Every structure is written in structure tokens, then in C-alpha cells.
What we know:
The complex is a heterodimer.
Chain A: H1 3-9, H2 47-72, H3 86-94, E1 101-103, H4 109-114, H5 119-122, H6 124-127, H7 136-139, H8 151-164, E2 171-176, H9 183-195, E3 199-205, E4 208-209, E5 212-213, H10 226-230, E6 234-238, H11 242-257, E7 263-268, H12 287-294, H13 298-308, H14 314-335, H15 356-373
Parallel strand pairs in A: 1-2, 2-3, 3-7, 6-7
Antiparallel strand pairs in A: 4-5
Chain B: H1 11-25, E1 29-33, H2 49-53, E2 58-60, H3 65-77, E3 81-85, H4 96-103, H5 106-109, E4 119-124, H6 139-143, E5 149-151, H7 156-168, E6 173-178, E7 203-206, E8 211-215, H8 219-230, E9 237-241, E10 244-246, H9 250-260, E11 263-270, H10 275-287, E12 296-300, H11 311-314, H12 318-326
Parallel strand pairs in B: 1-2, 1-3, 3-4, 4-6, 5-6, 8-9, 8-11, 11-12
Antiparallel strand pairs in B: 5-10, 7-9
Enzyme class (chain B): oxidoreductase
GO molecular function (chain B): branched-chain 2-oxo acid dehydrogenase activity; magnesium ion binding
Cofactor (chain B): thiamine diphosphate
Amino acid sequence: MTVMEQRGAYRPTPPPAWQPRTDPAPLLPDAEPYRVLGTEAAAGADPELLRRLYAELVKGRRYNAQATALTKQGRLAVYPSSTGQEACEVAAALVLEERDWLFPSYRDTLAVVARGVDPVEALTLLRGDWHTGYDPCEHRVAPLSTPLATQLPHAVGLAHAARLKGDDVVALAMVGDGGTSEGDFHEALNFAAVWQAPVVFLVQNNGFAISVPLAKQTAAPSLAHKAVGYGMPGRLVDGNDAAAVHEVLAAAVRRAREGGGPTLVEAITYRVEAHTNADDATRYRGDAEVETWKQHDPIALLERELTERGLLDETGVERARQDAETMAAALRAHMNQDAALDPMDLFAHVYAEPTPQLVEQREQLRAELAAEAEPEGAQ
Amino acid sequence: MTTVAVKPATMAQALTRAMRDAMAADPSVHVMGEDVGTLGGVFRVTDGLAKEFGEDRCTDTPLAEAGILGTAVGMAMYGLRPVVEMQFDAFAYPAFEQLLSHVAKMRNRTRGKMPLPITIRVPYGGGIGGVEHHSDSSEAYYMATPGLHVVTPATVADAYGLLRAAIASDDPVVFLEPKRLYWSKDSWNPEEPATVEPIGRAVVRRSGRSATLITYGPSVPVCLEAAEAARSEGWDLEVVDLRSLVPFDDETVCASVRRTGRAVVVHESGGFGGPGGEIAARVTERCFHHLEAPVLRVAGFDLPYPPPMLERHHLPGVDRILDAVGRLQWEAES
């Protein structure tokens, strides 16, 4: 048979029918960030929750200020402040049950503290006396993760493992807008969706990755839109509206708990301070922009709502302020004591059992320390 | 007395058996990776595990090495014991950030509160005619990362024993599988209860008096062949199989070199910045007064892994090893 004859005999049939594997419409975020405070939705908010959020927000702001001051006094090596982002930090911690897990990034010390970790232990990393100061398993809080987005696949794996074991555990993982450009963000969301893992991703879009604005980070309609490509819902929320963040995260946690799989939440907020105390924000943004955001302050928004509804009076405001001062004074007192350091700890936790090579090196350091301790001129 | 003929098993089969026995003994052992489930792995090393234990215990993951290792970290945080397969040496590189920044450091970062018992299986090395990105010797990268154990078997029995030990270890273990030995067979009897080998102990594969060949993984059979060939030159070579690169067994290696007075390190990995430099330095520091000659290295050339039709010129072979042995200053003895 010639080629032409073969072609004549060829009877094309259509390929198997194609259709989208999931309907993308319900996954799409709303056009506007969800808001509660100052809207009709506020009437439905639980007054007790609002009061609790307020107290934690005030404490959180004070914590950020105190930690920044400690940096200037040389008591902390560095502090990436979450001032202006307290609503996200606090809501992320309060939305979880005790058995759930939190996976913070390096800017989320406040969420770690709001989850119940000792404020001094939470600062160990930034003080520099060790890397992680708290026991992650005791608090179900993963170590603060400095390499961007690398903690996200951990959250997915942990949530997946819990589900395999039949445990009712949800993982909430925090990341910034810059972190969404990392490969680990993509891989974590993809694994989570494929495995239908009970995990919630909270992106705090605070406008900047150190100096780089979002426009140079992504061309996506919003970061929440990225969810659709993975087959999970994306939600957009006003990140300075503590009630809204809490409500959106609570719904995502509920959905995960009930077997509905992961959710991506983008909270629109603003990093009021520089990246860290070592950064100079005036090199890449103007005061006017910062001032605009200060007019949309998470504490002021909540305070107005509570006051207008008669849920908070001047005494209440003063009490919250006093509680925050008490916390700050205790933190100062602890941090002004020198950290207890034991150089031999360097070798204690590299492996379950030190290798012969590490045993040799440990003994070398021990001898060096002993020599240092000898009085001058002693034989 | 009757003897039952046992069909010898290959190294690949011994590895499968090790995972199977570990999974049967401990429900927290989970195998995961690309194509490890339905297919049984591109080298069939996970053959039958998904069928026997279900897809939740032997899981086909999305194709993303950082995601595979990253999720394994989370699973280990929750008390599971993941055994991760990286499909090929050079495909493991996307997982390096997870490996270096988290897997290797988590125990240390958390003062021992959060150990990560993860086994990372990596088929490595050349000699199978693979096209580019399929034949790298990546062990130096892993060795240079504190917090990891690095293990590589050269025999079928060790493949079983070391993999069982790796899975049982409470520390992360990079388990390097010499892929050209996957189909090798030796006297290991799969019907016998197999022993679990301790991690960190080298073994003398062949005793000799003239010089020590220090080697591991895919180069062990090459060194044994070289030792046989060396007999006609009048050299009686000892061959030390390291088995574990981290921890390093200084004791066994140095005891051998002190006996023979001469040493050559043999590996496929490039020489510059490769494991041989570290090994030669350790031996020299510890055995200087026993050495009759400098410790020499026979390594792969310092170049990107060659195309398959040229790889035989790159890989250390018997002749190159014997040339090195010949340069160990024998004339000084006469």
C-alpha cells in the first residue's frame, strides 16, 4: 500500500472527550477583599472573639515595639517586625485548636507567641543563643522558618501524615508575598491539592519582599488567584481587619477539618516598619504610602468597632494597654539578663549519637575551654 | 542432608526486600517518590510494595523533588519514617534546599526535640550507558553537609543490611545506591534471616600486605578485580570497602594502612574537592609515620559526566588503579 493509499484509508476519530477536571468558578476569589469591621457583617461577629482579638492585637503591637527596642539595645541580633500586620498574626494563632499545627515564617514571632509559646523562648532565634528556643512538639508550632516558603511542604506533609493516621489535625502555614515566587510555594500547594491535605495557606501580602514591591514579584490578578491553578479555593481578605481574617481562616480550617482539602488565603496588609532594623525603607518607598496605611490600622479599626457597639470603653482600652505593658516589662526583664550559654551544646544535637569525628572535635573544644579557664601564667 | 538451591538475588531485589521487611515490621515506614507505586520504580526497586501495603504506604507523588522531600519532613515531624526515592542522582538537586536547610539541621535547630528519621535513596554513579544527568557521583555534596549520614553498599548483603539500618536510624540517611550494581548477584541468601549492618563501619573485602585500596560503592568490584590482576605484578592488595562515608571509619581504614604502608583511594567522583581528598588527608594525618609513599587518588576526571559512549575513559578502571599502585615508591624498599 502506498503512503497516499494509506492516507485515503485513514478514518480520523475524535480523541476522548475533554472537559475541565474541576469547575474553576467556585475556586475564584472575590473581586474585593472580604471585610467585616465597619460593614453589615460586623453585627454577626462574636463580641467575645472581638474583645479577645483586641487584647491580643494591643499586646502584639507592644511586643513588636519592645523587640525592636531590644534590638537597638543589642539584646537581639535582629528583629523582623510585624507591626501593622498584627491582625493576621493573631488571627492565625487563635483560629487553631490546640491539636492543630502552626508553621510560621521568620516574621511570625507574634503568631508563635499568640499561640502560647513563651515570649522569651520565641525570641531565641533572633537573640542568637540557639536556633529554636521552644519545643515544637509541645506547642505544635514548627520552628520559625527563614528560608522562604520551605516550611509550606512541611505543613502539607504533617497534615497528610495526620490524616493517614486518622487524626483530626489541621496545619496552618504562613508565608509572605515574596515567598509565593519560590518553587516550594508551588510544590506545597500542588501536593496539598493532590493529596487533599487538611492544610490552610495564609499569605500575608504586606506589599514588599524587603525592597521589592509586589508588581515586580508577580503578574497574577491576585495572589489568591494562584489557588485556582492547583484546584483549591483562593480567598481574598482585608489583612488589617482582624474579624475578617479570623472568619476567613476559620472557614478554611473548618473546610480542611471536614475533608474538603486545602485553601489559599491572601490577606492584604502592609509592613509598616522596614524589613528589619538593619533595613532602610526610605530607599524604596515614600512616607505618604506608609501614612495611608497607618490610617487603616488593624488596632484602630477594631477599637472603633468595639467602641461604637459599646463593647469597649476607656477602662477597657486602658486595661488592654496595661496588660501589654506588663508583658513588655516581663520581656525586658528576661531579655536584659545574659543568655546562659554552654559551648559544649554545639556537639549535643548534630546526630542522635555523635560521630567519632565529632567526639574528637568536642574534646578539642573541651580542652580549649579548659585552657581558657586556667588563670594567667598558671603552669 | 539436603541442600535447597536458592536463586541468588540481585542488589535491587535485596533493597526491595529490605523496604518490605521494614514496612512489615513498622507501620510508620512510608515509601514515597516518583513512579514508586504502580510501576515499582524505574529500576523496579519498589516493585510490589504498593500492591502489598497499599498506596498510602508506597505513594506515587507529583513530580517535584523538593516537594517530595519537603512533605517527607512534615511526615517525619508527625512521627512517620519516610523512605524517599530520588529517581536519579542528578534529579535530586531540586531537593537540596530541603536537604541542607531542614533535613540535615532540624535535630540541631530544635535541640534534639525534632529528629527527622528520613531515608533518602539515591541511585548514583555511572557505567550503565545513561545519557546526561543520569550518572552523577554526588556523594561529596552530601558528605559536606553536617547532620546527614551517607551510606553506600557494594554487595547484595550490604544493600539489605545497610538499608534496614538506614530506615531504623533516627537520623536522616542519604542512601546512595550504585546503580550499575543493581543487577549484581552474590552469595546473599534471601531465605536466610538477614543481618542489619551497623552504619559507620568499613569492612576489609580482601586482605593483602602490599598496599590498601580504599573505596566504596560502584568502585569496590573494580578494586577487587584490580587486586586479582595485581597478583601477577607481585602485589598483594588489600581492599577496604568504606560502606559509610559519614560517619567515617578512621579506625578500620587506618589499621589497614598501618599494616600495608601504602594507600590508594578509588572513586568515580571527580578528584578535585571529591571524597578522596578528605580520605587521603585523614589517612596522612593519622598514619604519616607508617606511610612509605604519598596517598594517591584514582578518581573520575574533573569534568561534567561524559556522554555514554565516552564514559569508559572517565571511570576508574583496573589499569588506572594498577598504574597508581605502581607509583607507590616501591623502589624505596629495595
